[in-house]
Amino acid sequence: MTSVTLQDATNFPFDQSQSVTARSRTAARLSFFMAALFLVLLAVLHVIKPELDPSWRMVSEYAIGANGWLMNLAFLSLALSCVSLVAALRRQVPTLGSKIGLVIFLVAALGLTIAAFFNTDPINISHDAVTPSGNMHGLGALLGIPTFPIAATLISLSLTRNKGRVASKRPYLWMLGLVWVSIVVFVATMAVMFKGTFNPTVLIGWPNRLLMVAQCAWMMTVAWPMAQLGGRKW
Question: Whole-prediction pTM value?
Fold first, then answer.
């Protein structure tokens, strides 16, 4: 199997003694494109399902009703992006913390997969009307939302451990910061506005979307340099 040393990518912050195989490059490209596909599908759903007010309705609710399969596909594409990124990075992040981060990242992928196969209930439904599918979707969210920033932090710290490459650190740190800002905004909005029921006064929709965009942005930022190795054009 062919490989390309990391010296071929000037902005690649990994250990120069490592190499990136063609399989790793392919996995990185797949991760990048699947995260981008999620964003495209989410944008399309905003256009074709305008009845869902994005200020307070969750992105998961696009899976309910007509054309809901697009949201299911979006969640699956994001899960595949996570798994592909783990495959791309598994030999490039040598620290114990980063290895733990990759395992946690797979947990996040599992949560996204569950979310894809089990549709959520409307967020303003009564507790007595929650369906088994809605409960499973909630489990997927519980596995995916809190684990992502932890995994991203552990992996990012490994990616930026080379103190001699300050410029190459910045995109990873900025995107990691965006991930944490999005999760803090999401949690803070819930804590301040949620009073037991969801309604148009609980403006959780935009923080939810910021959270998803931040996750995709981080994965695309991490995958992009590795996907470029070898001098091939996409």
Answer: 0.86
